[in-house]
Amino acid sequence: MEWMVIQMDVLSAIQKRREITAYKEMSISEEDLSKLKTVLYQAPTGNNLPSREFILITNKPLLAQLSKTTPYMRWLEQAAAGVVIIGHEELSKYWLQDASIAGGYLWLAATSLGLGAAWGAVYHAEDQQESAQRESYVQDLLDIPKKYRVVAILGMGYPANDPPPKKMYAEDVVFHLNGYSAR
Known about the structure:
183 residues, globular, alpha+beta
């Protein structure tokens, strides 16, 4: 597999990344979709096991159906593409971390290509009933075997607007040096 050149360095992509939930009516090129697939494929996993898999969705009616997974994903109807991230909990105890890391890589790569993205959480660690309902909806819609867990759906497209940077909290709220209480 050839190495690809990302159009924006990773630090710039991290700074520019926002949750984008409004998209222009433009499709994503096959070339860019191929780059995003490569990023997902190459995302790290614990013990290099294929504990996460991906379903690329470009079918607009299917994206509209997936937008009903939770009341908070209506924006998915506008997306040009989506990626359903599933985890294989029987294969690795790191399935959730592996799937989440891949989603983060995808989000940054999408940003580097000039795309916007948003994370639609499906798996809900604190509410098993809610998680089962969300996951079953997606599993049934996409014919996903029940042995897989549906972690999230990332919607992507060209941003309808360019939101300003988020106002961040002070760094000393989250950073500690050489121990928790040492700042």
